[in-house]
Specification:
The protein has one domain: Proton glutamate symport protein, CATH 1.10.3860. It is an all-alpha fold. It has 19 helices and no strands. About 2% of the residues have low confidence.
């Protein structure tokens, strides 16, 4: 995915939208509306792939977690750490963005709230609807949360099969996921045109105030990621891992920098392995925990997704009550831990959470255009979380530094 080309597409879309909004020129407004189909085709292409992609990735991720029972206490501690840090990340993202919304300018919603289905079901209905009557039907309807519940249960059942049959099914899902990732990569190459078609009509409707709001969004996400590191990850490293924050930060600066510049956990793995050894962690431990963390641990992505959901809900005028928030937390929790290795995958995999609360996925196109800045910070936060997990689990396993 060409980040520079996306920025150019975003810039052109913003320029056309701002010019149309500022001048009120009928010809510019018509031009902004005329390019909207480009954005819609781009979104439809993403939606075409995202349902089977998320299902395949979640299936493989859960099946891999299921195998951890064979790895004993070390695997359980690792996954437990991932879960314990992902939930606070989601709540921090929602809290920070809720506060940040007080600094945003009021803008007319791109889609009127009356046109959206934001009626929250009762708690009993919500729990009942989590179990799909027909998985194929809920996939066709786009009810991804119910579909994910089915996929999780199916993956859990798969781990009980004989090893050869389990491997066949998991390999099939993994191969399908790889093919869908490749298809998604092709689609994302069209992002410059898609972002242009999405940004122009939205900015034409909302005006320059949307640019201010996007700046507030970026700052809030970055602040939230530093809060996650300072108030969640570092205290766990100190209390459970027995490593002082200063030493831990100095010992992981290389991994953090590589994660920041490459925006990939997998690509940072060699540096993480080197620095884990320099920190004095047990090689037997960190050679298991770090690859596992690079595969399924995404606290930075979880924070970004929850903050994005609150921001987009406010942009579209969708009220979030307690029931919708609980449903969104569950959807983000499932999706964030199995983010596919695709550029801006944290945005793509947000679709289930948006579907739950009734926010149009069109808003993702705007975030995709400005994602480069949040992406480097959340990727670095993910790497920071991986090293925190390795340090903490090493100490808790009783086989580390002693």
């Amino acid at each position: 995915m060409n980040t520079r080309a996306i920025l150019v597409g975003l810039g052109l879309g913003l320029g056309l939208g701002v010019a149309a909004s500022a001048t009120g020129s009928p010809s510019l407004l018509r031009a902004a509306e005329a390019v909207e189909p480009l954005g819609q085709v781009f979104l439809r292409a993403i939606q075409m792939v995202v349902i089977p992609l998320v299902a395949a990735v979640v299936f493989v991720g859960v099946a891999r977690i299921g195998n951890l029972r064979k790895l004993g206490r070390l695997g359980g501690l690792s996954v437990g750490f991932f879960w314990v840090t992902t939930l606070p990340a989601i709540l921090i993202g929602m809290g920070v963005m809720t506060l940040a919304l007080t600094f945003t300018a009021p803008v007319p919603p791109p889609t009127q709230v009356a046109d959206l289905d934001t009626q929250a079901p009762g708690m009993v209905d919500f729990l009942v609807n989590l179990v799909p009557r027909n998985p194929v039907q809920v996939a066709a309807d786009g009810s991804l949360l119910s579909l994910l519940i089915f996929v999780v249960l199916l993956a859990a059942a798969t781990t009980t099969l004989p090893a050869d049959r389990q491997e066949k099914l998991t390999s099939l899902a993994e191969t399908l996921g790889d093919a869908l990732i490749k298809l998604m990569t092709w689609i994302l190459w069209t992002a410059p045109v898609g972002v242009f078609g999405l940004a122009a009509p939205v900015i034409a409707q909302t005006g320059v105030a949307m640019l201010q709001n996007l700046a507030v969004f970026i700052v809030a996400v970055v602040v939230g990621l530093f809060i996650l590191k300072g108030l969640v990850l570092l205290p766990l490293v100190r209390v459970l891992g027995g490593v002082r924050p200063g030493r831990f930060i100095r010992g992981t600066v290389g991994s953090y920098t590589v994660g920041f510049t490459t925006t990939t956990s997998v690509g940072t793995l060699p540096m993480m392995l080197q620095e884990a050894e320099k920190l004095g962690l047990s090689k037997r431990n960190f050679t298991l925990v770090l690859p596992l963390a690079a595969s399924i641990n995404r606290p930075g992505s979880a924070l970004f997704q929850s903050a994005s959901l609150v921001f987009l809900a406010a942009m579209y005028g969708v009220p979030l009550d307690a029931g919708l928030v609980a449903a969104a937390v569950l959807a983000i929790f499932l999706a964030a831990m199995t983010v596919a290795p695709v550029p801006s995958a944290s945005i793509v995999s947000m679709v289930p959470a948006l579907d739950v609360v009734g926010v149009p996925v069109a808003g993702l196109g705007i975030l995709l255009g400005i994602d480069r800045v949040p992406d480097v910070f959340r990727s670095a936060a993910n790497v920071f979380g991986h090293m925190s997990a390795a340090t903490t689990v090493d100490a808790m396993s009783g086989k580390g530094r002693g």
